[in-house]
Model the fold of this input.
Amino acid sequence: MAEITYNDIKNNDEINIYLQKGNELLGVLGFTEHAFKHAAKTAQTAAEILLKLGYDEREAELARIAGYIHDIGNVVNRVEHAQTGAVLAFNILTRLGMEPEEIAVIVAAIGNHDEGTGSAVSTISSALILADKTDVRRTRVRNSDFATFDIHDRVNYAVESSQLYVDREKKSVLLDLTIDTQICSVVDYFEIFMARMLMCRRAADFLKVKFELMINSAKLL
Done:
């Protein structure tokens, strides 16, 4: 068995083709960007969360890997993409020779990252959830016609700044957003993202820290 690294995954042609094609499928359906920028940002953030909270480098590396491939199931269908993605990841990682114990942790994280069906089930799962759900930014919006924006487009496009702060001493993970309320109200944000923010809170609980949310300098969670 081999110790598979994040670079092995990031440079794997098969994985990248599936991510690209899944993103194209979501583009047809009108979803925000779910390709390489989101994959890399999720990977980086998931690893940083664990490292800043004192977890070891290998756990952080597994979080990077899970973060990069967590949306691979979109190549099949958006519905139940977490479970489909977990199965795809299982097959790919097995062929690459990864240790079964590590595969099990990664596929569980991928299979539990969606707020509709998932839960925080491990440290890596929790870091993935926090990293994925806090990637809210204007550049993820693909629709170029503001007049036809749906509420998901408006919510993401309204975000002028998004910062995630991890404080080991205070035992907190803080998402600090600046939103243009002329584009999207705070109420609209909560209408779309409440389930995701609650999932973040439960993921933080698993890591024994507190999830906090600030929008336009007002603390909401």
